[in-house]
Amino acid sequence: MSDKIRLRFAPSPTGFLHIGGLRTALFDYLIAKSLGGVLFLRIEDTDQKREVEGAADKLIEILAWAGITFDEGPHIGGNFGPYIQSQRQDIYQKYNKELLAKGEVYPCFCTEERLTQMRAEAEAMKKPPRYDRTCRDLSADEAAKRIAAGEKYVIRHKLPLAGEIIVHDELRGDLKFNIADLDDYVLIKSDGVPTYQFASVVDDHLMETSHVVRGEEWLPSLPKNILLYKSFGWDAPKFIHLPLVLDKNGGKLSKRKGDVAVEDFRAKGFLPEALINFNALLGWHPAGENEIFSITDAIKEFKIEDIGTSPAIFNTDKLDYLNGVYIRKKSIPELIELCRPYLAENLALTSNDFKKTDEFIGKVVSLERERLKNLSEIGEHTKLFFVDNLEYDKNLLVWKKSTPEATKVNLESLFDFLDKIGDNDWQTKKLEESVTAWLKSNNSSVGDYLWPMRAALTGEKASPSPFEMADALGKAEVLDKIKKAIEKLK
Ligand code: GLU
């Protein structure tokens, strides 16, 4: 093995990128880049019952969106290809033959029915389901005859029958396993296709992987993997098993309980910066207090020994918080661009072309951005800016103990006052100053005027302030909406 740093992200193409997969890819990326190494993509599609069309392209696209790119992979090539396991069948056959010749593996002809029965019996006796090694001692001649006769078979790893194996995980140190607890597991299935256990070891060796980074759920495979490296006579790479990611109740993340596909988070309007920051914190923490960092900052500070081993909690409140932080870091022109797709429905509500301009959308977005947890909320939050004809009950206009009659009179005098304000003074601060000064000089109660004004402009109980609304909507529309409110009160 060379001393180069080479990491791989090795997803199975299921059609979407699981959020846990993004975490693995991110740690691969952070380790590779912090050590000045290479990150490559390998598509592990040997286990797929059914190939998902375009799944690899989708993975590459969504990872690039998140900010994770590769130095080698099926889409860009490299010196260690092919990078798609289904295209490496000849290679696996070659190494399978090598192990057969060495007597490290054996063909097993046991039928599916026999294995099922064996599993059921083990279960009934509360024992771990394990292959009883019937075919392990078949003579080479007999095995060859049965193969020639066309009998179906798998290839199993001939594990030592007893003893201990000590394996090393970079985070957990040395781990001892009793070999007798391991199964003579399958390396090549009856259709000739290798299992993950075989293909990943062969590929990690041939592709010169220096560090295997994968989830803790793979830890039980580690002794088998190490024994397979030994069977080949190869040095094993370093192994890093990332801590489990659990939901807030300590359960597995599942589709049923919420989003698990990165694509879903993107559609909801989570920013890649927030997802990356959040995912990095699922198992790692920079040395200082600061929890807000970019992928580039993280690369600078990253050290393998700082990765934790206790389960990380997928706290969606924290993700919302981080997303809000990154939304507020965006400039208004950037936010206009990012929010437009989420405003499509609102834009369809108005016949006023001005409301489709960046100028108007920019005002709306700057009023809302403090409150946004994700971009998709902008649609619902800002509907009232776009509706041409608001629908609301006239009683909404009436402040506390006031009456419809008094409210109508107040709105009429407010209309006349606002009508006289020039375009240059039509902005939030100035409007607020002039209207409050006017109310004060008349000894009028603020609520009796500003509540009906705000209600007339929004048709809602809660909204931005009447002056912010007035600024965004513009004088003509404000006067029109107040006029309609007066009509309602007649
Ligand atoms: N193909 C495996 C998965 O998708 C990858 C495990 C590994 O990285 O070795 O979970």
**N-to-C SSE series?**
EHEHHEHHEEEEHEHEEHHHEHHHHHHHHH
Small-molecule components bound:
glutamic acid
User: Helix fraction?
Assistant: 40-55%
At CATH level 2, the architecture of the largest domain is 3-Layer(aba) Sandwich
**Based on CA inertia axes, which overall geometry fits?**
elongated
The fraction of residues assigned to DSSP E strands is: 5-15%
CATH fold description of the largest domain: Rossmann fold
Span from first to last CA? 87 Å
Q: How many β-strands, per DSSP?
A: 11
* Overall number of structural domains: 4
Q: What would CATH call the homologous superfamily of the largest domain?
A: HUPs
* CATH uppermost class of the largest domain: Alpha Beta
Strand order of the largest sheet: 3-4-7
Q: Structural class of the helix and strand makeup?
A: mainly alpha
Report the sheet with the most strands, covering strand number, pairing sense and barrel closure.
Answer: 3 strands, antiparallel
Mean pLDDT figure: 94
pLDDT below 50 for ≥5 consecutive residues: which ranges? none
What is the number of helical segments per DSSP (H or I, 4+ residues)?
Answer: 19
Based on CA atoms alone, the radius of gyration comes out at 32 Å
Keywords:
mainly alpha, Rossmann fold, 490 residues, Helicase, Ruva Protein, domain 3, 19 helices
